[in-house]
Specification:
alpha+beta; Arc Repressor Mutant, subunit A; 3 domains; five-stranded mixed β-sheet; three-stranded antiparallel β-sheet; 45% helix
């Protein structure tokens, strides 16, 4: 029986060790959605899955609307493609609203308030305008809707995203803007609920597999019933592998990894390689799983060697260079040190400046 190499198969399927993709939109489409509340880290997540993208390339794709950033799934910001944003929202927004319902009640936000807020936002943004969050907060206040509480205005804007009214616009300096979705993205082919469920299920297990149903539930925010249905619809396109009594799914067309890759990856916080799974034991050694800081492995930028987490890193951008500080879980070997230096150099190329490694 073939032994399933979960970590290296994921590196390959996610485009980290294969790097067959060329454009930011191609990476986002392949993965289905890319977590992006850390915008700068998310840009590097896209860049690292290609051979030659730069930070400027990803920024331009974002400004031009080739990739969009909106709340979809869990709930948090994700990069999505214009072709996918509407059917993804129709599929996952109801679940995100359920996840947000506690705050809706706490902040006294109901459907009547959301309708008034959406109307004011639509009026302010129509005609191709792109406005910052702070400006939209003022728009909401002028409409007679209390938004002095920053959290309240945040959830009003989030709801407008979930309703498919607004999405990301180009940045103004370092500030993010919003525009009307219907003006940023032409209407495309609509997918029915089952079609959308099948598409997301197929894409997740193709790009993120091997993964379990529980992993997909975590990543998508969908219910167990939805995920079971999605797997049933697309199971002819997938293969099933059982490892340690756990059922993993991956695409039947996936190229099986025959040799382990020794590549080092400096992954940003919230990278899909770690965040996309409920069970992260394929990447994090069990001896580190009980550390008080274990959750920081998700939040922090991580160093991956041979498919496994071996440390964390952070960056500090200076005027003419970027300093990368390494925090190993165990002392690095000479081979690892050289490989990490090469990975850091590539990160510097992505940013367009030399790197200093500490």
């Amino acid at each position: 029986m073939r032994t399933l190499d979960i970590a290296h198969q994921r590196l390959h399927n996610q485009g980290l060790s294969s790097q067959d993709l060329k454009k930011p939109g191609e990476v986002v489409k392949w993965l289905g959605a890319v977590q992006a509340q850390d915008y700068y880290g998310a840009k590097w997540a896209l860049g690292q899955r290609t051979k030659s993208l730069t930070d400027g390339d990803v920024e331009k794709a974002f400004s031009d609307g080739q990739i969009l950033r909106t709340h979809v799934m869990r709930p948090t910001w994700h990069f999505v493609t214009p072709a996918d944003i509407r059917w993804l929202l129709r599929l996952t927004a109801p679940r995100v609203n359920v996840a947000c319902s506690h705050y809706y009640r706490k902040l006294e936000l109901d459907e009547s308030v959301f309708r008034r807020s959406n109307k004011a936002l639509a009026r302010a943004l129509q005609g191709g305008k792109h406005l910052t969050r702070e400006t939209l907060r003022t728009v909401i206040q002028r409409a007679g809707i209390a938004s002095d509480d920053l959290l309240r205005s945040t959830y009003l804007i989030l709801r407008a995203e979930l309703d498919g009214l607004i999405c990301s616009g180009p940045r103004i300096g370092k500030q993010f803007t919003y525009g009307l979705l219907d003006e940023r993205v032409p209407q495309g082919k609509a997918l029915g609920n089952d079609e959308a469920l099948a598409e997301l299920t197929r894409r997740y297990f193709t790009s993120h597999g091997p993964a379990t149903a529980s992993d997909f539930i975590w990543w998508s925010g969908l219910t167990a019933t939805d995920v079971k249905k999605g797997l049933e619809i697309v199971k002819r396109d997938l293969v099933k592998e059982v490892v340690d009594s756990k059922t993993f799914w991956l695409s039947s067309s996936t190229t099986t990894m025959k040799r382990a890759s020794r590549d080092v990856f400096l992954l940003p916080g919230f990278d899909e390689y770690l965040i996309a799974y409920a069970d992260r034991s394929a990447v994090i050694d069990p001896k580190y799983s009980k550390r008080p800081t274990r959750e920081n492995f998700v939040f922090n930028s991580i160093i991956v060697w041979d498919g496994r987490l071996v440390g964390t890193w952070n960056r500090k951008i200076e005027k003419t260079s970027v300093t990368i500080t390494l925090s190993p879980l165990a002392p690095f070997s000479k081979t690892q040190t050289l490989a990490i230096a090469e990975a850091a150099r590539r990160y510097g190329e992505f940013l367009g400046m030399p790197t200093v490694v500490r």
